[in-house]
Amino acid sequence: MRFPLGVGVFWAICGGFTLGVFLRSIVAIPTGFALCLAILAFLSLMASTNDTKKLRLALVLVAALLSCGVGILRMQSAILPGDAALDAKIGQKVSLEGVVSAEPDVRATQIRVPVDIASSSAAVLAIFPSHTDIYYGEHVHMSGTVQLPQSFDAGAGRQFNYPGYLAAQGISYELDRATLESGDGFYGNMLTAFSYKVKDMFVLGLERSLPEPQSGLAGGITVGDKRAMGKDLTQEFRTVSLVHIVVLSGYNITVVINALFQVLSWAPRFLRFGAGGFVALFFAVMTGFASASLRAALMALIAISGTLSGRIYRADRALAVVSLLMLVWNPYLLVFDPGFQLSFLACAGLLVFSPMFTRWFARVPENFGLREILISTSSAQTAVLPLLLYESGNLSLVSIPANLLVLAAVPPAMLFSGIAALGGLLFEPLAPFIGFPANALLSYILGTAHFLASIPYAAVMVPAFNAWLLVPIYAALFGYGFYGFYQYKEKTASE
Q1: pLDDT for 312-332, tens place per residue?
Q2: Engineering a disulfide at 352: which of 65, 111, 453, 481 sits with its beta carbon 3.0 to 4.6 angstroms away?
Q3: Looking at the structure, do residues 93 and 72 belong to the same domain, yes or no?
Q4: CB-based burial label for 427 (10 Å; 0-12, 13-18, 19+)
Q5: What total of structural domains would you count in the chain?
């Protein structure tokens, strides 16, 4: 199948840049290597100027080589510089001042707060006691023991690259056993602060209307509240492969936007899609530009702009453009952010494997969206499974029935959770009655997850394996998927 030159160059740019970022993320490649790639690109172009067919291939190769060099340079430029003053104080107690740069992560026994240090390009993750009163954008004076982040054992012989994960958030140091000495003034972004305030008010309404752990689950599926349900329940959702509904993922944002479009079906198209774009961006801001929500928001914006301009929306190219933009913005995401990896693979799986599963599940009834849920779940799970097995080793044997039983309940649960939150804020005495429908749906989701997780061998642990095994696994998996995808397209076109 012959692609137009522009399409080939497009994919060469996306693939080349991603490869360059990947290579520089795992190997200390000299900057001069990018110059070598540029010279090689020039020689390839010169060698094919007299042959039209070779010239087309050469242009694609040139785009790939130059983009790979740019990717190497972009990752090189993103490497976080150290702070000599902090490096000299590792393991010692220090006093620092700075600005809280993101929403504090409230946990059972501590609050983890990213702080941009004043008069330095460094940022620290300050770990305060759980009772500390601190907020986004606050200028703080604090003290604690400065440490370098360390990788830790993730279980079953797996190591989690915690320094790389924090580096993806711009953080180079930890401030352990931190104490807040004083806080004064606001120096953050007003839109970000407003979005966090809206989320806090929403969660407050949920807490007034719903008991725990229902309110925690409602906060997770509606506004991505990190406090969510606690360690034990979260583990149950991991066991049955439902943890993706607890965080504010692309699926949850799509549910909200689709519901908004239905509510505004009477409105002019420009207003309807403008509201959808605003909601997508607002959710991305509210989650601190978490990878999954940012990807979903950007893809939604591309789809909306395509509809408004009358152009055809190609989800595969939209995913490539969004991924490229996110890596240009923060190249650390590719190797060190599991959220970005899983979100990208799940979306790619939906695009590549859906035609195959559509044929396989053609006889499944469409009632309650069962066929659609089965197709989308199977497609996404197929794509993310190898990476999940590498990262956690958790192989859920009840994933498909869990998603079939639960996903149909998520949209109404989100709707009634929103109603419950408003009821809790506006009509507090009646809040439990207003929240009853949400309570029933959330209890069903929690009960289903608990029941399936309690089944013997609901999940098994796969031994740790080398990361490089993922390369042939994904090459074979997506190779087979693309083969079936293009067969499906050709068959559809002939019919």
Answers
A1: 667 788 889 989 999 999 999
A2: 481
A3: no
A4: middle
A5: 3
